[in-house]
Design a protein that fits this description.
By secondary structure, the chain is α/β, with parallel strands linked by helices. Among the domains are: 161 residues, P-loop containing nucleotide triphosphate hydrolases (Rossmann fold), CATH 3.40.50; 60 residues, Gyrase A, domain 2 (2-Layer Sandwich), CATH 3.30.1360. The protein has ten helices and 13 strands. The strands form three sheets. Strands 5-6-7-3-8-9 form a six-stranded mixed sheet, with helices on both faces. Strands 11-12-10-13 form a four-stranded antiparallel sheet, with no helix packed on it. Helix 4 runs antiparallel to helix 5.
Length: 321
């Protein structure tokens, strides 16, 4: 039996348009944030939940965490209905929103953790053991007595993650957790999430626009668009559908004989480097590599797939998102 069960989830929002000149009342417009979304997630899975802005990702997270009540459909997480069993449900989940902090801004981080210990009714022994574990894993030792407002964005995000995991939740929702972080902070955060998932079998639902996060952490991905689920499956399989352009960079020992390459290969030269752009659908990679080997003695060569962000952008365009 799945840990998260979502069936025909529907959510609508009613907004009022700007009042037309001379009109007494503003017109109403109904936005369908979610339309019959269904999926199941097993205990301990790490799943990516992606889609363009306005697709319904954050709305899903808010419903699954018990913040919003849906207009239709069924949701069950660990035997609980989030919006009906909010207090009990909150004991089993952690939520991190990349642009919102649950820790107190002007007090030392450790004081915020002490308040969270009381809120979640964590025993002193369990609190100290978990705090020591997370402090070491997230490298927070020197930051615990510093007010949150004095920390950098990356340090605040690590502190926020620690606060969300103090009560050792079964399920962790991450909504844009790496937004604004530098490369070093992103890598450290990814390492920690892998560690938490493996060590404690924590189920993680990751919502982000950073496809490098998804590629590094998630083997399964769900794509949402216009409030509907468009894909649910393996990330590599999804990307392979749109991997239509690759680049080969080659350096030869001497001037090569490349006049025999087919016209579908776009060639540019930068010093001794040759850059060749081609489509694997038109010219299979093994055939092109064989041609390049016949053109001369190769000193070095790299084959680069299309950037993952370009692949996702191509997918969104093809799906009409």
């Amino acid at each position: 039996m799945s840990y998260i069960h979502v069936q025909n989830l529907t959510k609508r929002f009613e907004i009022r348009k700007k009042r037309e000149k001379g009109a007494l009342l503003r017109e109403k417009q109904v936005i369908h944030a979610l339309k019959d979304v269904s999926f199941d997630v097993g205990q301990g899975e790490l799943v990516g939940y992606i889609g363009p802005n306005g697709a319904g990702k954050s709305t899903t997270v808010k419903i699954l965490s018990g913040i919003l009540t849906p207009d239709g459909g069924d949701v069950e997480i660990g035997g609980r209905i989030p919006w009906q069993d909010r207090k009990e449900h909150a004991q089993h989940i952690g939520v991190v929103f990349g642009q919102r902090m649950q820790l107190w801004w002007d007090v030392p981080v450790l004081d915020s953790y002490s308040l969270l210990k009381d809120i979640y009714r964590i025993s002193e022994d369990a609190y100290q053991a978990r705090l020591n574990e997370l402090t070491e894993a997230l490298d927070l030792g020197n930051l615990l007595r510093v007010p949150l407002r004095q920390l950098s964005l990356g340090q605040r995000m690590r502190a926020e993650l620690c606060g969300s995991l103090l009560h050792q939740p079964e399920l962790l929702f991450l909504d844009e957790p790496t937004i604004g972080l530098d490369a070093v902070s992103k890598l450290a955060l990814r390492d920690f999430l892998r560690w938490e998932n493996r060590r404690n079998h924590t189920t993680i639902l990751l919502t982000t626009h950073d496809m490098e996060d998804i590629a590094a952490l998630c083997s399964r991905v769900m794509v949402l668009g216009h409030g509907s689920k468009l894909y649910d499956g393996d990330l590599a399989e999804l990307l392979s559908r749109f991997d239509r352009t690759r680049t080969v960079t080659v350096r030869y020992d001497r001037e090569p004989e490349i006049s025999g390459l087919p016209g579908c290969v776009d060639i540019s030269k930068q010093g001794e480097l040759l850059h060749l752009t081609y489509s694997p659908e038109t010219l299979p990679t093994p055939e092109l590599l064989s041609m390049l080997q016949q053109a001369g003695t190769i000193r070095e060569m790299t084959v680069q797939p299309q950037n993952i962000d370009h692949l996702i952008a191509a997918m969104y365009r093809e799906l009409g998102l």
